[in-house]
Amino acid sequence: MLKTQITTSLPYKLYRADQVRENEAPAASQHDCGMFTLMQRAGQAVFHQCQLLLPNSDVYLILVGQGNNAGDGYITALQAKSAGKQVFVCAVQPERDLLGDAGRAQQLWINAGGKVEAFSTEILNRADLVVDALLGTGINSYIRNEFASVIDAVNASNVPVVSVDVPSGLDANTGQSMGRCIEADVTVTFVGIKPGLTTGAGKQSCGTLVFDDLGIGKAFMNLARPCGTLLDISQFKGLGPREVHSHKGTYGRLLCVGGNRGTAGAIRLAGEAALRSGAGMVKIYAHELSLIQVSAGRPELMVTNSGLEDALKWATCVVIGPGLGQDEWAEEAFSTTLKHCQAHSKPVVIDADALNLLNKQSVAYTISDCILTPHAGEASRLLGVTVDDVEAERFNYARQCAQRYHATCILKGAGTIIDNETHTWVCRHGNPGMATAGSGDVLSGILGALLAQGLSIDMAAKYGVTLHGKAGDNIAEKFGQRGMIASDLFDAVRALINQ
Length: 499
Fold this sequence. Notes:
The chain contains 19 helices and 18 strands. Helix 3 (68-82) links the parallel strand 2 (59-64) and strand 3. The two termini are 43 Å apart. Helix 11 runs parallel beside helix 12 (328-344) and helix 14 crosses helix 16 (394-405). The strands form two sheets. It has an eleven-stranded mixed sheet, sandwiched between helices. Strands 4-3-2-5-6-7-8 form a seven-stranded parallel sheet. It has two domains: 13-226, YjeF N-terminal domain (Rossmann fold); 234-497, UDP-N-acetylmuramoyl-L-alanine:D-glutamate ligase (3-Layer(aba) Sandwich). The chain is elongated, with a radius of gyration of 26 Å. It has 499 residues and is of the alpha/beta class.
């Protein structure tokens, strides 16, 4: 029996689909195996995940296309048949003979008494589980109607789906749906994790991501240079114990600027998040009509509505944007803050409304130590493109944002991306429950606190995003995603940062 190792804890490096295609054969040869052996290992890995997902399922529907992805599907079908399952193999062109290794796998299926049929909803309705091996990583244009109709039918059904390497219809590099895309319950990806599986629509479409290096991982990593890194909380050692002989000034003085009239909550969330993340002292500069709302219930926050220049001189780093607004008061606070940070090389986190003001005044400022935290809508305004453009190519636009503003850009969303102009990281933590008012303000406070405690811009961005996402996951695991509010994250962040 073939042996292969499934990795449920994902490796940290990301590789483009073309890197995998170019390097998997040389890597396999270094391990004294051929491409058909990899195909056999891939099919076994997929069947193993099918058994884990639905161990008592009896009827398998294997959807196959025309390339090597189809070959993986045929091997999966053979594995399922030999295990006593009832297996239907359906293709868009069932009479078509495949070539190469995929053709060899197809012939093995036929020699074993298997048939290749046209897809029908009748067969789909009989299936306990679908294996999606329709379209692989080579897709680079919108899919044809005959494939789209199959994908629509599968997505409309309640049948669980395991996708082979990448959900059919998904661009493996960008995570963009090419017109239609399978919504999988599990995706088993091979040799290298493709970036499109980790962010945006791709993260949604692939469901649970499982990785298998097919036994050639070491050689492959020696041949291919990763295009990004996946971030996991286990990669960080934390901040370590504090010195016994220390005081509040040891852990930084953070100024949070925002909280215009009617939006006091945003800057309050950022300030308290900073305290819960270990900042020694946190001062809030807010509109005079927001002072009571900010200070009530959290006396540890220092609050002022005057002397912004003095507050900036006092601070070792700054967060600006939560609840800032875009009126005259906001514009004056923004201009004063960025001029100071530029003149004194002071680290600054720019979030929310401050990003919109930055877009209007971008040519006026160049700050050496800066973190930008846009969501897709804010990034679209910063770059002069549409929101759909950003979501279709999240890696590209995160890099463009970092380059245009010479900053570390945190592009928020499913699979938050961090880019510093030369390197890219993707956070694997986070969940839809965090799509709630104030969650981004909490992230800004965390980032500010880490900067206040002496972390570099890049380390604060990477660790802060990971802390934030993992805290949300811990809350969701304990209480569920629905009903999560931003302030729920405080205790979870505090627990994580002390581990």
